[in-house]
Amino acid sequence: MDTGIELRHFRYVLAVAEQESFTAAAEQLGITQPALSRAIQAVEETVGSRLFDRGRHGATLTEAGAVFRDDAVALDRMARTAVSRPSRHGGASKHLRVTARACDIDTLHGLVASYNDARDPRAPVARGAVVDASVQVEEVRNGEADLTLVRSPLDTTGLDSELVRSDARVALLPAGHRHAHRHTVDRGELAGEAIVAWVGLSTDETSFWTGTDLAPYEWRPGPVVSDSAQFAAGVRLGDGIGFVPEVLLSELPSLTGVAVVRVTGLSDSELRMGWSELATSPVLAGFVRHVSDVADAA
């Protein structure tokens, strides 16, 4: 059935939903506001429902609009993936792009190297790349990367994933902290503490990094940081405590003035291999099987 709705119409709806304004959305899209309004009205006539409530304070999604928006997000992602993925899977340079954060570079390098050693010579090679945490999952969703090593908590929307391993987390305490001499403490003994937090955390990520995802312990906001040096410094200066995977302690620039204490009642940090749920590549499936075999043998 030809509805007359094109991909650009879905992106128009997404822009208005994001900006909550036809004027701002038109500016973002590079078209005139009247043209955008006519296009949205045409979509509404086609689907038989209003997608936006329009008022003096902007445009807000209706219930039908929210449903359309969610489907438009998925469709837009599929379209971007369809355009970006073939460039890595055709010609002499075809390869799998596998990414990870810098803190997991050793695992990334080991998996890529062992896969390339074991692969069928006719299969594309895997190439590792380090990316920022803020983009690594989205790159897989939009097809810029084939797979990524990503740590919990993970938004699995549009993804399939395989557990690589679970890493215990430890507490970082200032050297003068009352529990700094302990080998092990329970998470409940650290209730009420100020906690160093990473910038830009979601609600689930905040619960994880504050150690409140298993139980609602009280805690106070500490410094908000953007890199591991700031994280360690916040603890050393006594501005807060922190929780990190034990295997990543070596990534911190310095632990001088910081005590590392094991913690019971704290969830593990899961390292997962994630890929697009739309992916059907046998080569990608082969890499996932390799990761699973390596994890089982560990």
CATH architecture of the largest domain: 3-Layer(aba) Sandwich
- The end-to-end distance, rounded to whole angstroms, is 52 Å
Shape label: flat
Q: Compute the number of strand runs.
A: 13
Task: Please provide a written account of the structure.
- This protein is α/β, with parallel strands linked by helices.
- It has 3 domains: 7-85, Winged helix-like DNA-binding domain superfamily/Winged helix DNA-binding domain (Arc Repressor Mutant, subunit A); 91-163 and 270-297, D-Maltodextrin-Binding Protein, domain 2, CATH 3.40.190.10; 169-267, 3-Layer(aba) Sandwich (D-Maltodextrin-Binding Protein, domain 2).
- The protein is built from 9 helices and 13 strands.
- It has helices spanning 7-19, 22-29, 33-47, 63-84, 105-118, 136-141, 203-209, 228-236, 282-297, and strands spanning 52-55, 58-61, 95-100, 125-130, 147-151, 159-167, 169-174, 184-186, 194-198, 220-225, 242-245, 258-264, 269-276.
- It is flat, with a radius of gyration of 23 Å.
- The model has no long low-confidence stretch (mean pLDDT 89).
- It comes from Promicromonospora sukumoe.
